[in-house]
Amino acid sequence: xxxxxxxxxxxxxxxxxxxxxxxxxxxxxxxxxxxxxxxxxxxxxxxxxxxxxxxxxxxxxxxxxxxxxxxxxxxxxxxxxxxxxxxxxxxxxxxxxxxxxxxxxxxxxxxxxxxxxxxxxxxxxxxxxxxxxxxxxxxxxxxxxxxxxxxxxxxxxxxxxxxxxxxxxxxxxxxxxxxxxxxxxxxxxxxxxxxxx
Amino acid sequence: xxxxxxxxxxxxxxxxxxxxxxxxxxxxxxxxxxxxxxxxxxxxxxxxxxxxxxxxxxxxxxxxxxxxxxxxxxxxxxxxxxxxxxxxxxxxxxxxxxxxxxxxxxxxxxxxxxxxxxxxxxxxxxxxxxxxxx
Lengths: 197, 134
What we know:
The structure holds 2 protein chains of 2 kinds.
Chain A: H1 18-47, H2 54-57, H3 60-85, H4 89-119, H5 128-155, H6 161-164, H7 166-196
Helix pairs in contact in A: 1-5, 1-7, 3-4, 3-7, 4-5, 5-7
Chain B: H1 2-33, H2 39-61, H3 69-94, H4 100-133
């Protein structure tokens, strides 16, 4: 059977297993994606004659709550990886399960926030502020959804790999963790920029 | 073996410390936003807190405090291109080709004309109401 090389052992020239370099290159492209939109936000705001104060139009307590939820999910994510390093599979299941629950909670809260806006007839076309608000938070939410799908796979059917290739599985969890922390990191900037300034 | 077990427990306590710091910083950034300060200072403080939080996540959760050289090289390029992109886009707000500033002004005037159209629409509704009275 053909085996994918460097899933566990490090390549000599990079000093890394391949997936780790891969995810960092992907995250580099994500920095440019969100960076472009952040730059657009700055440009749109500088050029706008009026700009609503985030606090006046968005629900700050809900946003703060969601920030805490995402931070918690990042901690449980890293604990899931530590649990695998400790060869404690039940603890891995519990902590990754909590990560998934946190991310679903985040989406539910975000859904309520969107719902409240939609029910008042406020869509992206309302003004430039809402256009960039929906673009940035919508793209972030898509990243959360994508992450949940992958996390759920590793919690469920994907976790079978633990029985046959535990080290490779541990690396997979580290890689999905890096992605998850990045999504948390983007929200750390989105929250003050859209809700507080 | 006991050495690695000790390392892991220290690692875990570190993660919880970072979690505590992130939670406190989130409360701080919301508290700061309630202060009555100028826009420039508010933006500076908000970005300062956000950057602190982001570097905590990146260095501890994403293990950038001890990573292989190649990843720092990749991130070095990323940082360079990211900063260049932000600067180029923001400069475009200040350095516009001859004549386009006025075009912007015209656009705003057109927008105001658009509002006028809105008022007409309201008038129509008014007429419709009046019609209902008859």
